[in-house]
Write a structure and sequence with these properties.
Number of domains: 2
Helix content: 40-55%
Number of strands: 5
CATH superfamily of the largest domain: Response regulator
Largest sheet: 5 strands, parallel
Radius of gyration: 17 Å
Distance between the termini: 43 Å
Shape: globular
Pfam families: GerE, Response_reg
Organism: Actinomadura alba
Number of helices: 11
Structural class: alpha/beta
Strand order of the largest sheet: 2-1-3-4-5
CATH class of the largest domain: Alpha Beta
Keywords: DNA-binding, Phosphoprotein, Transcription, Transcription regulation
Protein name: Response regulator transcription factor
Length: about 220
């Protein structure tokens, strides 16, 4: 069962998302929060699998709340999906840097919301290739190799190939086709890379890839 907390300052939004998710055999909404502070407190108390977090809330916004939750050593399995009305690259970048695993617009279809919760709960990132390319193109100038975490030098050539393709937005099956290996082998590589770099999930691999310069705008846009 995937336990979900919904954090949004608009009750209508919370009720809408709850109505979509309730009744499913593998998802249950365990709590609602009306601001970022409540979201942090509730998540620490209930320890859900996924938090649907509005980006604009009073007291503490969604990015700040996500940063606190993702930095909590007792919540290493918790995944945050940032929700907003606006598809702004600055928001996406901030959400990923805060540790979020996904980014969704509030006007998505019910089926897309359900799919997003399931995808993120199993440890996959929810970042479309087009969004990834825009992010890298706009924010690669912020890259600071000195600020990236340890472990990059321990990656094998094959692991770097896999990391690059993940950063381009490819799924495990797509990486498998590209490298002519099995999806199971790709999954093993991804697990090893996550362990070596000490990150939470695939979304954070994307951040590391472009902030370290492993992936560049020129490579993606050519």
């Amino acid at each position: 069962m995937i336990n979900v907390v919904i954090a949004d300052d608009q009750k209508l939004v919370r009720v809408g998302f709850r109505s979509i998710l309730e009744g499913l055999p593998d998802i249950t909404v365990v709590g609602e929060a009306q601001d970022g502070g409540d979201a942090v407190a509730l998540s620490r108390a209930l320890r859900p699998d996924v938090v649907l977090m509005d980006i604009r809330m009073p007291e503490l916004d969604g990015i700040q709340a996500a940063r606190q939750l993702c930095a909590d050593p007792l919540l290493t399995d918790l995944k945050v999906i940032i929700l907003t009305t606006y598809e702004l690259d600055e928001y996406i970048y901030g959400a990923l840097r805060a540790g979020a695993s996904g980014f969704l617009l509030k006007d998505i279809d019910p089926a897309e919301l359900i799919h997003a919760v399931r995808v993120v709960a199993r440890g996959d990132a929810l970042i479309a290739p087009s969004v990834t390319r825009r992010l890298i193109g706009e924010f690669a100038g912020r890259a600071d190799p000195q600020a990236t975490g340890p472990g990059l030098e321990t990656l094998t050539d094959r692991e770097r190939e896999v990391l690059t393709l993940i950063a381009e937005g490819l799924s495990n099956p797509e990486v498998a086709v590209k490298l002519v290996i099995s999806p199971a082998t790709v999954k093993t590589y991804v697990s090893r890379i996550i362990a070596k770099l000490g990150v939470r999930d695939r979304a954070q691999l994307v951040v590391v890839a472009y902030e370290s310069g492993i992936v560049t705008p020129r490579r993606l846009l050519c």
